[in-house]
C-alpha cells in the first residue's frame, strides 16, 4: 500500500475526509446515491400513475437490483482489474447516459424497464470497483469507519432524496426529476475524474467470465461465508420489499415513510460505526437484524401514520447490522479479490432487495399492501432466527 495513504492510527471521519482520494470517492458516491434515489422515486411515481399496480410500482423502484446478480456472476472481476479508475469512469458514464434517457417524455414503460435492468448491471460493476478502490485507499483499520461513513451518508442522502423528491413531485414532472438525477450523475463522474488516481500496485490479471467464476467458486465454497452472505442479503432484502409498498399503501405519506426508514438507517450506522467497537458490533449484529423486521408487524394493525413513521424509523436502525457482517467478510477475503467479493456482496444484497420488492408487490396484488407488508416482515423475522448461529459464522468465515 502506498506510504502517502491514511495510517491505521488515524481513521476517524474527519481524518478520512482529509484524504483527497477518499473525499472525492465519497462525494461521488453521495451524488450517485442521490441520483438513484430521485430516479427511483420518479419512476415509481410515473408507473403508479400510469398503471395503478402495486407490483409494477414496487418493481420499478427496485427493479434495477435484479440485474446486479448478472454482473456479480459474469463480469465482477473487472472490479479488481489493473485500471480501476478508468473502469469506474466508464461505468459512471454509462449510468449518466441511461439516466438521461429516462428523462425522455415519450419513452414507453417497456423501454424504461429495459433501461432499469441495464443500469442495474453497470451500477453493480461500478459498486464493486468503487469498493475495491476504497479498500486500497484506506488502511485495514480504517475500513469500518469508511464503510460506516458511506452508509451514514447513504441514509442521509436517501432521507433528503425521498423528502425532496416528495416535495418536488408536486412541482416537477417525473421526467424533470430524471433530468435532475442525470445532472447529479454528471457531477459524480467529474469528481472521480479530478480526485481519484489510477492504482499501480495491482496484480496483472485479465478480468472476464473465467476470472469471475473462479473467485466466486472460492467465495461460495466456504460454508461460513455462505452464511454471512445469506445474513447480509435475505432479511434486509425482504424489508426493502416492505418499503417498496409505501407508495401503494399510503401515496400521500410515502415520501415521509421512506425518509423515516432512511433516517433510521443513518442513525443506526452512525451509532454502530462510531460509538461501538468491533467486539460490540459483533455482539449486537443479531439483535439489529431482528430490529430491522419486527416494527413492520405493526402494519397489520393499520395504526395512524405517525405511529408507522416511528416504527419505520426504529426499524431502519436495524440496517446497521450489515456493518459487522461486512467486516467479517472482508477479514475472510484475500486481498487480490477484495473488490470482486465486496461487489458480489453488494450485488447480492441489491438483488435480494429487488426480489423482496417483487415478492411484496406480488403479495400486495392478492391481499393488499398492509397484509403483504406484515407477511413479508414475518418471513424476515423467521429467516433471521433460522440463520441465528452467528457464533458459527465468525469461526467459519475467519
In terms of DSSP E residues, the strand content is under 5%
> What would you report as the Rg, rounded to the nearest angstrom?
20 Å
- What's the story with the biggest beta sheet? none
Query: Any idea what the shape is?
Result: globular
The number of E-state strands comes to: 0
Low-confidence stretches: 1-10, 390-398
CA(first)-CA(last) distance: 23 Å
Mean pLDDT: 81
What proportion of the residues is helical, as a percent range?
over 70%
Can you give a write-up of this model?
The protein has 398 residues and is an all-alpha fold. The chain is 77% helix and 0% strand. It has helices at residues 13-18, 20-51, 54-62, 65-74, 84-102, 109-137, 143-168, 174-195, 209-221, 223-243, 246-249, 254-274, 278-293, 305-317, 322-331, 338-367, 369-386, 390-397. Residues 1-10 and 390-398 have low confidence and may be disordered.
Topology of this structure?
Blueprint: H1 13-18, H2 20-51, H3 54-62, H4 65-74, H5 84-102, H6 109-137, H7 143-168, H8 174-195, H9 209-221, H10 223-243, H11 246-249, H12 254-274, H13 278-293, H14 305-317, H15 322-331, H16 338-367, H17 369-386, H18 390-397
Offer a few descriptive terms.
single chain, 398 residues, mainly alpha, 77% helix, globular, disordered N terminus
What is this entry, summarized?
This protein has helices at 13-18, 20-51, 54-62, 65-74, 84-102, 109-137, 143-168, 174-195, 209-221, 223-243, 246-249, 254-274, 278-293, 305-317, 322-331, 338-367, 369-386, 390-397. With 398 residues, the protein is mainly α.
Amino acid at each position: 500500500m502506498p506510504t502517502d495513504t491514511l495510517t491505521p492510527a488515524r481513521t476517524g471521519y474527519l481524518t478520512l475526509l482529509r484524504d483527497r482520494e477518499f473525499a472525492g470517492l465519497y462525494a461521488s458516491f453521495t451524488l450517485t446515491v442521490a441520483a438513484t434515489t430521485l430516479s427511483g422515486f420518479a419512476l415509481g411515481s410515473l408507473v403508479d400513475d400510469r398503471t395503478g399496480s402495486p407490483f409494477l410500482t414496487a418493481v420499478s423502484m427496485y427493479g434495477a437490483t435484479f440485474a446486479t446478480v448478472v454482473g456479480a456472476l459474469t463480469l465482477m472481476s473487472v472490479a479488481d482489474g489493473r485500471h480501476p479508475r478508468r473502469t469506474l469512469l466508464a461505468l459512471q458514464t454509462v449510468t449518466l447516459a441511461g439516466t438521461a434517457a429516462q428523462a425522455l417524455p415519450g419513452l414507453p414503460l417497456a423501454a424504461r424497464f429495459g433501461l432499469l435492468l441495464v443500469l442495474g448491471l453497470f451500477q453493480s460493476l461500478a459498486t464493486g470497483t468503487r469498493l475495491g478502490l476504497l479498500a486500497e485507499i484506506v488502511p485495514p483499520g480504517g475500513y469500518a469507519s469508511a464503510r460506516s461513513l458511506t452508509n451514514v451518508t447513504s441514509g442521509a442522502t436517501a432521507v433528503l432524496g425521498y423528502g425532496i423528491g416528495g416535495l418536488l413531485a408536486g412541482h416537477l414532472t417525473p421526467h424533470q426529476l430524471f433530468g435532475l438525477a442525470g445532472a447529479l450523475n454528471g457531477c459524480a463522474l467529474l469528481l472521480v475524474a479530478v480526485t481519484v488516481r489510477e492504482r499501480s500496485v495491482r496484480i496483472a490479471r485479465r478480468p472476464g467470465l473465467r476470472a469471475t467464476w473462479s473467485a466466486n467458486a472460492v467465495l461460495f465454497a466456504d460454508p461460513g461465508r455462505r452464511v454471512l452472505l445469506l445474513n447480509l442479503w435475505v432479511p434486509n432484502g425482504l424489508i426493502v420489499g416492505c418499503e417498496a409498498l409505501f407508495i401503494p399503501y399510503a401515496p400521500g405519506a410515502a415520501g415521509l415513510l421512506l425518509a423515516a426508514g432512511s433516517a433510521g438507517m443513518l442513525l443506526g450506522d452512525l451509532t454502530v460505526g462510531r460509538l461501538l467497537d468491533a467486539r460490540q458490533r459483533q455482539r449486537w449484529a443479531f439483535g439489529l437484524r431482528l430490529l430491522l423486521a419486527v416494527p413492520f408487524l405493526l402494519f397489520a394493525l393499520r395504526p395512524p401514520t405517525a405511529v408507522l413513521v416511528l416504527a419505520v424509523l426504529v426499524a431502519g436502525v436495524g440496517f446497521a447490522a450489515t456493518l459487522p457482517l461486512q467486516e467479517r467478510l472482508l477479514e475472510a477475503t484475500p486481498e487480490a479479490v477484495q473488490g470482486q467479493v465486496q461487489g458480489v456482496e453488494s450485488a447480492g444484497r441489491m438483488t435480494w432487495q429487488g426480489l423482496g420488492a417483487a415478492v411484496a408487490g406480488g403479495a400486495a396484488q392478492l391481499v393488499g399492501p398492509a397484509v403483504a407488508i406484515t407477511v413479508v416482515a414475518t418471513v424476515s423475522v423467521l429467516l433471521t432466527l433460522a440463520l441465528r448461529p452467528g457464533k458459527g459464522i465468525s469461526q467459519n468465515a475467519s
